[in-house]
Amino acid sequence: MFWERPQARRVPASRRSLLLLQCLLLLRAPAGLLGDQTRRVSLEVIPWRTALPQNLLHIRAVGANSTIHYLWSSLGPPAVLFVATDTPHSVLSVNWSCLAVLPAESVRFSSALIFPRLFEFDSTNSSEVKDGSPGKPYPPYLLANFSWDDINSTLDPTKLSATLQGCPSKDPSGAFSNGSLAFKVQAFSSSGRPDHLPRLLHTADTSQLEVVLSGVVPQGNHSLFGLEVATPALDSECPQLKKLDSIDDEYCPSVFQLDQLLWRSPPEGFLQWRPIAFSQKQPAWKTALPCRVSPPAPTLSTLLPQLPIVRAFFGPSVNFCTFNLTFGDSTGPAYEDQRYLSWSAVLGIGIPTMDSFSPLVLGIMAVVMGLPALLLVGGGLSLLLIRHRRYSEYEPIN
Ligand SMILES: *[C@@H]1O[C@H](CO)[C@@H](O)[C@H](O)[C@H]1NC(C)=O
Ligand SMILES: *[C@@H]1O[C@H](CO)[C@@H](O)[C@H](O)[C@H]1NC(C)=O
Ligand SMILES: *[C@@H]1O[C@H](CO)[C@@H](O)[C@H](O)[C@H]1NC(C)=O
Ligand SMILES: *[C@@H]1O[C@H](CO)[C@@H](O)[C@H](O)[C@H]1NC(C)=O
Ligand SMILES: *[C@@H]1O[C@H](CO)[C@@H](O)[C@H](O)[C@H]1NC(C)=O
Ligand SMILES: *[C@@H]1O[C@H](CO)[C@@H](O)[C@H](O)[C@H]1NC(C)=O
To answer: Whole-model pTM?
Structure first.
């Protein structure tokens, strides 16, 4: 089980201490591929050819020797293109036919995330819910057919954030008459951790996305929602999904796992999230929902809507992989309780950032075990760990 409610948490003690040690041994400051600790981040809304609200948001994060560009757009379905370059002077060039980051030879990594469909499932029929299926699907909401508010009005240059918020252009059932779907985006100039749950660690090489479904009338009792995510198949390969056991500390009590999507190996880009979503504006563990993810699989491009910015950058022949996120299960808290759902992830360049121990946990361990004893045990077990280590996300790439 990848997510456990607080009252039902159990991880074998032996496995736990191994995890603790593993984390201790690998304790180090998070570092990205580009390795800049701080960046100058700027946000600008770029004019596009249509007269509609121009939702093309360029986030530029400049470090000493590198630049990361994030381009969020609502042309077609919501999407983000992210490009890392090894110069602080790279620029994004957008014209009517072409989208490029220049100079082209400075590009070290690029990928994109696209959100084509919002799913809703009826989880009340137990014979439909078995085998991990979320239930009988209602017709999906196509996000390419949404109309999106002007992102300019949500731009916050101090918080380095902006929100893409929309609802279906045609809404015959009125489900969205008092509701919306929002993609809240935030970039960071340095490392840290937000105050609100799930308190994902971020660095200057990452940005955060929070998807919020709020006020939308569900179509049935105990509806589950899901989100389809597409990404270009780089070198004809889908990114890999890795589930990482994490430690139980004060930042993320009761959630022992970090899910991550890794582009290339060793990773050059990643998406990272806790396998939970929140069903209340004030996030609380008691009412959290499990978030399940399906492994990314190649998909036919014809099944995807027009993807203007992604095709403009990667060219017309790029292939795609998709995966599904589903929030909630047939029992327990549900979206309908508060008509609210929030899921957060961190999108980054380079090797995924890793949770280390909080000072409190480190302090307790130092007191309880004593540092010499700790080192002794650590030395003995590191041999064991080396033998047991499968693929490790913690390895520096050089
Ligand atoms: C940037 O590049 C210069 C020259 O290549 C190097 O001396 C410097 O250490 C680099 N700075 C960082 C932060 O990587
Ligand atoms: C658009 O940009 C591309 C690449 O920067 C350039 O080759 C092309 O001439 C530009 N087209 C127009 C109409 O400016
Ligand atoms: C539950 O699903 C099964 C299989 O699809 C179907 O045969 C049955 O009629 C459904 N029950 C209800 C109450 O909808
Ligand atoms: C719309 O939402 C507000 C705030 O959540 C609520 O007070 C109001 O009753 C809702 N209206 C309808 C028609 O559902
Ligand atoms: C939802 O539940 C209520 C009460 O249990 C029931 O009357 C209603 O028919 C259900 N609605 C649907 C769409 O299943
Ligand atoms: C995502 O879910 C939808 C609806 O249930 C399904 O049609 C689609 O095949 C799923 N995609 C993947 C990659 O699992």
So the answer is: 0.82
In degrees and rounded to multiples of 5, residue 334 shows phi and psi of -135, 165
Find the 101 Cα to ligand 2 centroid distance in Å: 12
Kindly report the protein residue whose alpha carbon is nearest to atom 6 of ligand 1: 65
Q: For the segment 156-188, what is each residue's pLDDT rounded down to a tens digit?
A: 999 999 999 999 999 999 999 999 999 999 999
Residue at 383 is within a domain? no
382 lies in some domain: no
Structural domain tally of the chain? 1
Distance of CA 249 to the CA centre of its chain: 21
Tell me what pLDDT residue 352 has.
86
- 327 alpha-carbon distance from chain centroid: 14
17 lies in some domain: no
Q: CA-to-CA distance for 366 and 2, rounded, in angstroms? A: 29
Which value, in Å, is the radius of gyration of the alpha carbons in the chain? 21
**Closest-lying ligand 5 atom to the alpha carbon of residue 220:** 13
Residue 398 within any structural domain of the chain: no
Residue-range definition of the domain harbouring residue 157: 40-349
